[in-house]
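Session log. Operator J.P. requested a structure for one protein chain; no other inputs attached. Running the standard single-chain path with token output.
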Amino acid sequence: MLCLLSGDSAATSEQRGREAPLAVRIRLARVGATKRPSYRVVVIDSRKPRDGRALEIIGHYDPLTEPATVQLDDAKVASWIAKGATPSETVAKLMKLVGVGTASAARPAAAAKSSRARKPAAKPAAKAAE
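Structure written below.
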């Protein structure tokens, strides 16, 4: 039996007293010719494809120059992180390289994941001499 309720059950998350988390990421979008990659650092919905429509372009990254060129807008990065956007691992590394924002504070899960100790590889047992 299908029962339709009035608008009370369709309350938004703000009306229920909690803030909805953003599904927004700061990540790279590839631009450039075949075998000549360059990237834009973009703010985009995490459900969109890699080169999908971005909310905002906040920088550029060119890995082919020596050394690699990284340009990030400090104010825009800080603004989006304050709004709840999380940088991808690659962008967090670029932010740390350039010294923009607090990459470690923005991705605490990534820091915890990388700090976990790896299990040492099993060593083969020594053959018994006969």
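Operator note: The longest strand covers residues 24-33.
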